[in-house]
Amino acid sequence: MATHLIATLPGDGIGPEIMEPTLELLEALGDFEFEEHLFGGASIDVYGVALTDEVLADCRKSDAVLLAAVGGPKWDTTDPEQPRPEQGLLGLRKGLGLYANLRPVKPLPALYDASPLRRERIEGTDLLVVRELTGGIYFGEKTRTATSASDVCSYTTEEIERIARTAFTSAEARSSSPKVSSVDKANVLETSRLWRQVVSELHSREFPGVELEHVLVDNAAMQLVSSPRDFDTILTENMFGDILSDEAAMLTGSIGMLPSASLSGDGPGMFEPVHGSAPDIAGKGVANPLAMFLSAAMMLRHGLGLASEAAAVESGVERALAQGLRTPDLGGGAGTEQATRAVLENLE
Length: 348
Fold this sequence. Notes:
The protein is α/β, with parallel strands linked by helices. The protein folds into two domains: 1-99 and 258-348, Isopropylmalate Dehydrogenase, CATH 3.40.718; 116-252, Isopropylmalate Dehydrogenase (3-Layer(aba) Sandwich), CATH 3.40.718. 40% of the residues lie in helices and 18% in strands. It has helices spanning 15-27, 41-47, 53-61, 86-95, 119-122, 157-174, 190-206, 217-226, 238-249, 290-303, 307-322, 336-345, and strands spanning 4-11, 32-36, 64-69, 100-105, 127-132, 142-144, 149-151, 179-184, 211-216, 233-236, 259-263, 269-273. Strands 2-1-3-12-11-4-5-10-8-9 form a ten-stranded mixed sheet, sandwiched between helices. Helix 1 (15-27) runs parallel beside helix 12 (336-345) and helix 10 runs antiparallel to helix 11 (307-322).
Protein backbone atom coordinates (compact mmCIF):
# COMPACT_ATOMS: atom_id res chain seq x y z
CA MET A 1 0.00 0.00 0.00
CA ALA A 2 1.30 3.43 -0.92
CA THR A 3 2.08 5.94 1.81
CA HIS A 4 -0.81 8.22 2.71
CA LEU A 5 -0.16 11.64 4.20
CA ILE A 6 -2.42 12.31 7.17
CA ALA A 7 -2.63 15.74 8.82
CA THR A 8 -3.25 15.12 12.52
CA LEU A 9 -4.85 17.71 14.80
CA PRO A 10 -4.77 16.45 18.41
CA GLY A 11 -6.33 19.67 19.68
CA ASP A 12 -7.29 20.14 23.31
CA GLY A 13 -8.33 18.25 26.45
CA ILE A 14 -8.36 14.50 25.86
CA GLY A 15 -7.50 15.07 22.19
CA PRO A 16 -3.80 14.17 22.42
CA GLU A 17 -4.62 11.17 24.63
CA ILE A 18 -6.92 9.59 22.04
CA MET A 19 -4.86 10.65 19.01
CA GLU A 20 -1.73 8.77 20.10
CA PRO A 21 -3.34 5.30 20.29
CA THR A 22 -5.21 5.95 17.05
CA LEU A 23 -1.94 6.48 15.21
CA GLU A 24 -0.64 3.26 16.76
CA LEU A 25 -3.74 1.50 15.44
CA LEU A 26 -3.25 2.90 11.95
CA GLU A 27 0.44 1.93 11.91
CA ALA A 28 -0.63 -1.66 12.57
CA LEU A 29 -2.71 -1.56 9.40
CA GLY A 30 -0.49 0.01 6.76
CA ASP A 31 1.96 2.65 5.62
CA PHE A 32 0.99 6.16 6.69
CA GLU A 33 2.86 9.42 7.15
CA PHE A 34 1.57 11.68 9.93
CA GLU A 35 2.09 15.44 10.20
CA GLU A 36 0.94 16.92 13.51
CA HIS A 37 -0.31 20.51 13.76
CA LEU A 38 -1.51 22.80 16.54
CA PHE A 39 -5.24 23.46 16.36
CA GLY A 40 -8.03 24.91 18.49
CA GLY A 41 -7.13 26.18 21.94
CA ALA A 42 -3.59 24.83 21.62
CA SER A 43 -3.13 27.05 18.56
CA ILE A 44 -4.70 30.07 20.29
CA ASP A 45 -2.15 29.75 23.09
CA VAL A 46 0.77 29.92 20.65
CA TYR A 47 -0.50 31.91 17.66
CA GLY A 48 -3.55 33.78 18.94
CA VAL A 49 -5.88 32.07 16.43
CA ALA A 50 -7.53 28.64 16.40
CA LEU A 51 -6.43 27.87 12.83
CA THR A 52 -3.43 29.44 11.10
CA ASP A 53 -3.16 29.89 7.34
CA GLU A 54 -0.14 27.57 7.36
CA VAL A 55 -2.04 24.73 9.03
CA LEU A 56 -4.96 25.14 6.63
CA ALA A 57 -2.53 24.99 3.68
CA ASP A 58 -0.92 21.82 5.07
CA CYS A 59 -4.34 20.23 5.55
CA ARG A 60 -5.20 21.00 1.93
CA LYS A 61 -2.04 19.18 0.79
CA SER A 62 -2.78 16.06 2.84
CA ASP A 63 -4.70 12.96 1.81
CA ALA A 64 -6.95 13.24 4.88
CA VAL A 65 -7.29 15.21 8.11
CA LEU A 66 -7.68 13.41 11.43
CA LEU A 67 -8.99 15.60 14.26
CA ALA A 68 -9.36 14.59 17.93
CA ALA A 69 -11.10 17.32 19.98
CA VAL A 70 -11.12 21.07 20.55
CA GLY A 71 -12.24 23.48 23.23
CA GLY A 72 -12.30 23.87 26.98
CA PRO A 73 -13.14 26.34 29.76
CA LYS A 74 -9.76 28.03 29.39
CA TRP A 75 -10.89 29.57 26.10
CA ASP A 76 -14.61 29.93 26.85
CA THR A 77 -15.68 33.53 26.34
CA THR A 78 -18.70 35.58 25.33
CA ASP A 79 -16.50 38.38 24.01
CA PRO A 80 -16.90 38.42 20.20
CA GLU A 81 -13.44 39.96 19.87
CA GLN A 82 -11.71 37.02 21.54
CA PRO A 83 -10.74 33.85 19.61
CA ARG A 84 -12.53 30.59 20.36
CA PRO A 85 -11.30 27.06 19.54
CA GLU A 86 -14.51 26.30 17.63
CA GLN A 87 -13.58 28.97 15.10
CA GLY A 88 -10.89 26.57 13.93
CA LEU A 89 -13.51 23.96 13.12
CA LEU A 90 -15.60 26.40 11.12
CA GLY A 91 -12.47 27.62 9.34
CA LEU A 92 -11.45 24.10 8.37
CA ARG A 93 -14.91 23.23 7.12
CA LYS A 94 -15.07 26.35 4.98
CA GLY A 95 -11.43 26.24 3.90
CA LEU A 96 -11.58 22.61 2.79
CA GLY A 97 -15.10 22.87 1.36
CA LEU A 98 -16.39 20.19 3.74
CA TYR A 99 -20.09 20.55 3.06
CA ALA A 100 -21.22 16.99 3.91
CA ASN A 101 -21.04 15.56 7.42
CA LEU A 102 -21.80 11.84 7.80
CA ARG A 103 -22.57 10.42 11.24
CA PRO A 104 -23.50 6.73 11.38
CA VAL A 105 -25.48 5.56 14.40
CA LYS A 106 -25.61 1.79 14.90
CA PRO A 107 -25.84 0.56 18.49
CA LEU A 108 -23.73 -2.58 18.93
CA PRO A 109 -25.44 -5.60 20.51
CA ALA A 110 -22.79 -5.69 23.23
CA LEU A 111 -23.83 -2.17 24.29
CA TYR A 112 -27.61 -2.43 24.08
CA ASP A 113 -27.82 -2.36 27.87
CA ALA A 114 -25.54 0.70 28.07
CA SER A 115 -28.07 2.89 26.27
CA PRO A 116 -30.47 4.98 28.38
CA LEU A 117 -33.24 3.57 26.15
CA ARG A 118 -34.61 0.07 26.58
CA ARG A 119 -33.01 -2.69 24.52
CA GLU A 120 -36.22 -3.41 22.60
CA ARG A 121 -36.43 0.24 21.55
CA ILE A 122 -32.93 0.51 20.03
CA GLU A 123 -32.45 -3.05 18.81
CA GLY A 124 -31.94 -3.11 15.05
CA THR A 125 -31.26 0.63 14.75
CA ASP A 126 -28.92 1.44 11.86
CA LEU A 127 -29.15 5.02 10.64
CA LEU A 128 -26.99 7.67 9.02
CA VAL A 129 -27.27 11.40 9.68
CA VAL A 130 -26.25 13.48 6.64
CA ARG A 131 -25.76 17.06 7.83
CA GLU A 132 -25.08 20.12 5.68
CA LEU A 133 -21.92 21.62 7.15
CA THR A 134 -20.93 24.92 5.52
CA GLY A 135 -24.17 26.89 5.29
CA GLY A 136 -27.03 27.96 7.50
CA ILE A 137 -26.99 29.94 10.73
CA TYR A 138 -23.42 29.00 11.73
CA PHE A 139 -22.00 30.77 8.69
CA GLY A 140 -24.55 33.55 8.21
CA GLU A 141 -23.93 37.23 8.91
CA LYS A 142 -23.70 37.99 12.62
CA THR A 143 -24.35 41.24 14.48
CA ARG A 144 -23.93 42.17 18.13
CA THR A 145 -24.71 45.32 20.08
CA ALA A 146 -25.01 45.98 23.79
CA THR A 147 -28.72 45.11 23.71
CA SER A 148 -29.29 42.83 20.71
CA ALA A 149 -27.72 40.19 18.49
CA SER A 150 -28.60 38.36 15.29
CA ASP A 151 -27.45 35.37 13.28
CA VAL A 152 -28.65 35.05 9.69
CA CYS A 153 -29.69 31.60 8.43
CA SER A 154 -29.22 31.46 4.67
CA TYR A 155 -29.23 28.65 2.10
CA THR A 156 -28.97 28.55 -1.69
CA THR A 157 -30.51 26.04 -4.04
CA GLU A 158 -27.04 24.78 -4.95
CA GLU A 159 -26.09 24.16 -1.31
CA ILE A 160 -29.29 22.22 -0.66
CA GLU A 161 -29.03 20.18 -3.86
CA ARG A 162 -25.50 18.97 -3.27
CA ILE A 163 -26.15 17.79 0.32
CA ALA A 164 -29.45 16.19 -0.71
CA ARG A 165 -27.64 14.34 -3.51
CA THR A 166 -25.14 13.07 -0.96
CA ALA A 167 -27.99 11.79 1.23
CA PHE A 168 -29.81 10.05 -1.63
CA THR A 169 -26.67 8.35 -2.95
CA SER A 170 -25.67 7.33 0.58
CA ALA A 171 -29.11 5.83 1.16
CA GLU A 172 -28.85 3.86 -2.09
CA ALA A 173 -25.47 2.49 -1.02
CA ARG A 174 -26.76 1.48 2.42
CA SER A 175 -29.90 -0.43 1.57
CA SER A 176 -31.85 -2.27 -1.11
CA SER A 177 -34.90 -0.34 0.12
CA PRO A 178 -33.41 3.13 0.64
CA LYS A 179 -35.29 5.79 2.56
CA VAL A 180 -34.41 9.42 3.22
CA SER A 181 -36.04 11.43 6.00
CA SER A 182 -35.51 15.11 5.20
CA VAL A 183 -35.74 17.16 8.40
CA ASP A 184 -36.74 20.82 8.36
CA LYS A 185 -38.98 23.41 10.03
CA ALA A 186 -41.02 24.30 6.96
CA ASN A 187 -44.06 25.33 9.00
CA VAL A 188 -42.10 28.32 10.30
CA LEU A 189 -38.85 29.01 8.43
CA GLU A 190 -38.49 30.29 4.87
CA THR A 191 -35.12 28.54 4.50
CA SER A 192 -36.85 25.27 5.38
CA ARG A 193 -39.53 25.85 2.77
CA LEU A 194 -36.84 26.28 0.13
CA TRP A 195 -35.08 23.21 1.55
CA ARG A 196 -38.22 21.07 1.23
CA GLN A 197 -38.92 22.31 -2.30
CA VAL A 198 -35.38 21.66 -3.58
CA VAL A 199 -35.13 18.23 -1.93
CA SER A 200 -38.51 17.20 -3.42
CA GLU A 201 -37.58 18.38 -6.91
CA LEU A 202 -34.21 16.60 -6.83
CA HIS A 203 -35.88 13.42 -5.60
CA SER A 204 -38.41 13.44 -8.42
CA ARG A 205 -35.78 14.24 -11.03
CA GLU A 206 -32.89 11.96 -10.05
CA PHE A 207 -33.85 9.56 -7.24
CA PRO A 208 -37.46 8.37 -7.70
CA GLY A 209 -36.48 4.90 -6.46
CA VAL A 210 -35.61 6.23 -3.00
CA GLU A 211 -38.44 6.65 -0.51
CA LEU A 212 -38.60 10.26 0.71
CA GLU A 213 -40.41 11.66 3.72
CA HIS A 214 -40.37 15.17 5.17
CA VAL A 215 -40.24 15.43 8.97
CA LEU A 216 -40.40 18.56 11.11
CA VAL A 217 -37.35 18.81 13.35
CA ASP A 218 -39.25 18.68 16.65
CA ASN A 219 -41.08 15.54 15.49
CA ALA A 220 -37.79 14.02 14.33
CA ALA A 221 -36.27 14.61 17.78
CA MET A 222 -39.17 12.74 19.39
CA GLN A 223 -39.05 9.88 16.89
CA LEU A 224 -35.32 9.39 17.45
CA VAL A 225 -36.19 8.46 21.03
CA SER A 226 -39.49 6.65 20.46
CA SER A 227 -38.73 4.64 17.30
CA PRO A 228 -35.13 5.10 16.08
CA ARG A 229 -35.17 1.95 13.94
CA ASP A 230 -37.70 3.61 11.63
CA PHE A 231 -34.95 5.91 10.30
CA ASP A 232 -32.54 4.95 7.53
CA THR A 233 -30.86 8.13 6.26
CA ILE A 234 -31.62 11.49 7.90
CA LEU A 235 -30.93 14.57 5.76
CA THR A 236 -30.87 17.95 7.44
CA GLU A 237 -29.34 21.41 7.59
CA ASN A 238 -26.43 22.53 9.73
CA MET A 239 -27.87 23.42 13.14
CA PHE A 240 -30.62 20.79 13.16
CA GLY A 241 -28.05 18.17 12.19
CA ASP A 242 -25.72 19.25 14.97
CA ILE A 243 -28.43 18.75 17.59
CA LEU A 244 -30.06 15.60 16.20
CA SER A 245 -26.78 13.74 15.66
CA ASP A 246 -25.75 14.36 19.28
CA GLU A 247 -29.16 13.12 20.43
CA ALA A 248 -28.78 10.04 18.24
CA ALA A 249 -25.36 9.38 19.76
CA MET A 250 -26.98 8.41 23.05
CA LEU A 251 -28.67 5.46 21.34
CA THR A 252 -25.23 3.85 21.27
CA GLY A 253 -24.82 4.16 25.05
CA SER A 254 -22.32 7.00 25.02
CA ILE A 255 -21.37 9.95 22.85
CA GLY A 256 -17.88 8.48 23.22
CA MET A 257 -18.85 5.86 20.64
CA LEU A 258 -19.84 8.05 17.68
CA PRO A 259 -17.50 8.86 14.77
CA SER A 260 -18.01 11.29 11.91
CA ALA A 261 -16.72 12.13 8.44
CA SER A 262 -16.78 15.56 6.81
CA LEU A 263 -16.41 15.39 3.04
CA SER A 264 -16.11 17.69 0.04
CA GLY A 265 -16.64 17.10 -3.63
CA ASP A 266 -12.86 16.84 -4.03
CA GLY A 267 -9.86 17.31 -1.78
CA PRO A 268 -9.17 15.78 1.63
CA GLY A 269 -11.91 14.92 4.09
CA MET A 270 -11.81 15.51 7.84
CA PHE A 271 -12.58 12.74 10.31
CA GLU A 272 -13.32 13.26 13.99
CA PRO A 273 -15.24 11.81 16.93
CA VAL A 274 -18.46 13.60 17.80
CA HIS A 275 -17.62 14.01 21.49
CA GLY A 276 -15.86 17.06 22.88
CA SER A 277 -12.54 17.60 24.61
CA ALA A 278 -13.79 16.42 28.05
CA PRO A 279 -11.45 18.67 30.05
CA ASP A 280 -12.76 17.20 33.31
CA ILE A 281 -11.04 13.86 32.59
CA ALA A 282 -8.06 15.11 30.56
CA GLY A 283 -4.77 13.67 31.77
CA LYS A 284 -6.38 10.90 33.83
CA GLY A 285 -5.91 8.12 31.28
CA VAL A 286 -9.60 7.16 31.27
CA ALA A 287 -10.78 8.71 27.97
CA ASN A 288 -12.69 6.37 25.67
CA PRO A 289 -10.70 6.13 22.39
CA LEU A 290 -13.29 4.04 20.51
CA ALA A 291 -15.05 6.92 18.70
CA MET A 292 -11.61 8.10 17.58
CA PHE A 293 -10.79 4.60 16.34
CA LEU A 294 -14.08 4.46 14.45
CA SER A 295 -13.42 7.91 12.98
CA ALA A 296 -10.10 6.54 11.69
CA ALA A 297 -12.09 3.69 10.15
CA MET A 298 -14.29 6.23 8.36
CA MET A 299 -11.11 7.95 7.14
CA LEU A 300 -9.83 4.65 5.78
CA ARG A 301 -13.10 3.93 3.98
CA HIS A 302 -14.31 7.34 2.80
CA GLY A 303 -11.06 9.27 2.64
CA LEU A 304 -8.51 6.75 1.43
CA GLY A 305 -10.56 3.99 -0.21
CA LEU A 306 -9.23 1.30 2.15
CA ALA A 307 -12.43 -0.61 2.88
CA SER A 308 -10.86 -3.82 4.20
CA GLU A 309 -8.66 -1.91 6.66
CA ALA A 310 -11.71 0.07 7.80
CA ALA A 311 -13.63 -3.15 8.36
CA ALA A 312 -10.72 -4.51 10.41
CA VAL A 313 -10.92 -1.55 12.79
CA GLU A 314 -14.70 -1.74 13.10
CA SER A 315 -14.71 -5.48 13.77
CA GLY A 316 -11.82 -5.08 16.22
CA VAL A 317 -13.86 -2.57 18.24
CA GLU A 318 -16.96 -4.74 18.11
CA ARG A 319 -15.13 -7.89 19.20
CA ALA A 320 -13.40 -6.07 22.07
CA LEU A 321 -16.77 -4.84 23.34
CA ALA A 322 -18.31 -8.30 22.93
CA GLN A 323 -15.50 -9.66 25.11
CA GLY A 324 -16.45 -7.24 27.87
CA LEU A 325 -14.42 -4.08 27.27
CA ARG A 326 -16.10 -1.16 29.04
CA THR A 327 -14.64 2.31 29.56
CA PRO A 328 -16.00 4.51 32.39
CA ASP A 329 -18.54 6.24 30.12
CA LEU A 330 -19.91 2.77 29.31
CA GLY A 331 -20.17 1.77 32.95
CA GLY A 332 -16.81 0.00 33.24
CA GLY A 333 -13.32 0.65 34.48
CA ALA A 334 -11.08 0.22 31.42
CA GLY A 335 -8.75 3.13 30.76
CA THR A 336 -7.49 4.43 27.43
CA GLU A 337 -4.48 2.10 27.34
CA GLN A 338 -6.52 -1.00 28.23
CA ALA A 339 -9.12 -0.15 25.58
CA THR A 340 -6.38 0.33 22.99
CA ARG A 341 -4.77 -3.03 23.78
CA ALA A 342 -8.15 -4.78 23.60
CA VAL A 343 -8.85 -3.45 20.09
CA LEU A 344 -5.31 -4.09 18.82
CA GLU A 345 -5.52 -7.69 20.01
CA ASN A 346 -8.73 -8.13 18.00
CA LEU A 347 -7.46 -6.65 14.73
CA GLU A 348 -7.53 -9.04 11.78
